[in-house]
Amino acid sequence: MGLDTKGFQPVELSKEELEKMREDVHDRVIVARVGLLLRHPFFGNMATRMRVQNCDDWCPTAATDGRNLYYNTQFFNMLTNKQIEFVIAHEILHCVFDHIIRREDRNPRIFNIACDYKVNNLLVRDKIGERVDQIQIFQDFKYDDWTSEEIYDDIYNKYDEEELQALGELLDEHIDWEKDGDKEGEGKNPGKGGGKEKDKKSKRPSYSKEELKKIRDEIKESMITSAQSAGAGNTPGEIARMIKELTEPKMNWRELLRQQIQSTIKSDFTFSRPSRKGWHTGAILPGMNFMDTIDICIGIDMSGSIGDIQAQDFLGEVKGIMDEYKDYKIKLWCFDTKVYNEEDFSADGGQDLTDYEILGGGGTDFDANWIYMKENDIVPKKFIMFTDGYPFGSWGDEDYCDTIFVIHSHRDKNLQAPFGVTAHYDEAA
């Protein structure tokens, strides 16, 4: 990922001058970590789990790979100790929010800008260290409580490249993970020797997918233990909610969806047609009433971050559940500000749910689903909405029918719909 560093330019130093500066800065980084530990224990505990590494050869400001804190000697030299605290906490938050992975196929520079807005807003709001003012960083409270994806969408549609350059600069170097690792070595110990190494050039880190997974697991473990060490009330609220999500057991969305669909056949037991299984005991057991049809409607929100792959995965799970029953009826549609492409599926219809054509849309209005159902006299036993969870208005009519919201997990995993049942979609589940 590129970095515009016109706000900071290193100067030519003698070998002796540079070595003396490296020693001083290395000591100041350690002091800054202690300062975080005393004033902001969560960040301090996270920081102490990272190796401090001087990487003047490739890092113009600062960076992290989750295991190491990389820094440029001259850049850190011009900062105060509290500003170094700010930069260290900045790197930690990129790890905590999983920004490296969440970029997906978005424009790298714009997504990096969005992530910096997210991180810097939290640091300034919670007074973590001192804001860096030697360069014009991306920070604006109008984006407070926005996700990085929402910020990305806003600035992507609002600014051209020249206007983006005028907004500010990236505070750090955003490491772009190599999908298959570095051919010369997968960067497991880049820059070995740290701040005291004199002449040996450090390499920009790169990792295989397997190593990246290990690092992400390490970050999650570090978050939990750091929060525990910090004690109650010493972890920012947004991060505390994320940790709660990591530590509290939750029902797999697929299992929850199955339970909810099965609950539509509440009258599947009747004494009018007893089961033969208990005859030898003299007991009359209830029998299955297959005349009771599973009747559901499904709406797919195509206005947000949900793509065709996720939608097809969701529909595939629904199909797998339906295939277990002799009789079912499904009404399926896409929606944004209106409902479109409605199709009916049934057990004897011969259609394949996964062949449904997913169509994209514009804005979003959850109410469109309830308006459509009322206008067409559709009253399902369950209405299932697959959505990114951001209606930009009403969530719908809670009194009309039972509703299940399956919310795409790239957003806030703690988001709960104001009514009905909420499940969080996870591709890995």
Report what the structure shows.
There is one protein chain. This protein has 429 residues and is α/β, with parallel strands linked by helices. The protein folds into two domains: 15-247, no CATH class; 253-425, Rossmann fold, CATH 3.40.50. It has helices at 15-39, 41-48, 73-77, 81-96, 99-102, 108-125, 148-158, 161-167, 209-230, 237-247, 253-262, 308-322, 367-375; strands at 51-54, 62-64, 68-71, 269-275, 285-288, 294-301, 328-335, 339-346, 382-387, 403-408, 421-425. The protein has a six-stranded mixed sheet with strand order 8-7-6-9-10-11. Strands 1-3-2 form a three-stranded mixed sheet. It has a two-stranded antiparallel ribbon with strand order 4-5. Helix 1 crosses helix 4 (81-96) and helix 2 (41-48) packs across helix 9 (209-230). The chain is elongated and about 80 Å long. The model is unreliable at 1-6, 178-199 and 266-291 (pLDDT under 50).
Number of helices: 13
Instruction: Please give the alpha-carbon distance between the first and last residues.
Output: 31 Å
Structural class of the helix and strand makeup? alpha/beta
User: Hey, roughly how much beta strand do the residues contain?
Assistant: 5-15%
Number of strands: 11
